[in-house]
Amino acid sequence: MDDLIISNNKANYFLDLRDIFQNENPIFLEIGMGNGEFIVHMAKENPNANFIGIDVSKEIFRKALSRVKKSGLKNIRIMRIEGSEFLCKFVRSKTLSGVYINFPDPWSKKSRKERRLVNEPFIYLISDRLKEGGVFIFVSDDEDYAMTVWELLKKFTNFSPMWDDGLRTDFPEYYKTKYARKWLSLGLTIYYIGFRKERDVDLPEHVKKYYPLLNLSKEDLFMPLIEFKIKKTLNNEFIKEVLSILPRDVIYRDENTLIKILDVYHNERSILVDVLCVEGYYQQRFFVDINDIKKDILKIAIHDSDDPDPTLGVHRALAILASILKENFPELELVQNTTKVKNLT
């Protein structure tokens, strides 16, 4: 089983996918693999290609794993993860020969359309991860979602349609899953959109802001911390003072980032700050631990129970908390600051 699953941990970030399969065969990705029917079929029909399937649902992933194991195929790997997160963390530029998205959630209600996976930043991300000549095929039974994706792709001059204008409602040679067969049996329409990458384009800055994980490198994967020299112990009186100055509210906001303290907890030796950090599309929630376990040192760090991706927002959250403490306790002397925010005033 371990051979089939790509582990979602920091040790695998920015890995070379060829090392997983131990060959140079082209690599295709299915985002939202469902029960694994499509990817197992593709891997069986194309033994000289490699396939990766991902899905965010725990229950669906379990079903897909069972199907992949029963197939006995050696050219499939799977991971439980969201699509854009996988592309940012585990796929290098110019790696994939194709990306398939079959029947994604259309989020049909107007108020929820912003949750759709495929939007302008996502197409830039797909473009960056595809090799020249790589294909992107999007299949949907939702006309509005399909038309939106089609119109977006037509605006990207580095993509060309795989057929006519890139949109069709009849694609006999495309494998039909059980869901597709049922939909077609009811006389309903399926929309197939296919485009091929012709050349590279640089990722715009707004895409890197929307996907903050794009700004991480292997060298950035350390967890930041801040330490102050403290002349008093973290006793009940000091804890009460700290609790009184920490707002349960937004502590930072700009056009791309929101950092909010949701709540604060404490015991006799430490304070736990429950933090929500939203950067572009990416949300993380984690605890910041403020403690004096080291003698004469007040430490501000991510709690051991959490392991967020160390984006700029995470660094900024620690720095802002440290700034609040420094402002209210000027006697604190900075000993160490490994965050990317060096000015704590």
UniProtKB/TrEMBL annotation:
SUPFAM superfamilies assigned to the protein according to its UniProt record, in alphabetical order: S-adenosyl-L-methionine-dependent methyltransferases (SSF53335)
Described function: Catalyzes the formation of N(7)-methylguanine at position 46 (m7G46) in tRNA.
Protein name: tRNA (guanine-N(7)-)-methyltransferase
Binding site for substrate: 109, 141
Record-level GO cellular component terms: tRNA methyltransferase complex
Catalysed reactions listed for this entry: guanosine(46) in tRNA + S-adenosyl-L-methionine = N(7)-methylguanosine(46) in tRNA + S-adenosyl-L-homocysteine
Family: Belongs to the class I-like SAM-binding methyltransferase superfamily. TrmB family.
Keyword entries, A-Z: Methyltransferase, S-adenosyl-L-methionine, Transferase, tRNA processing
Keyword check for tRNA processing: yes
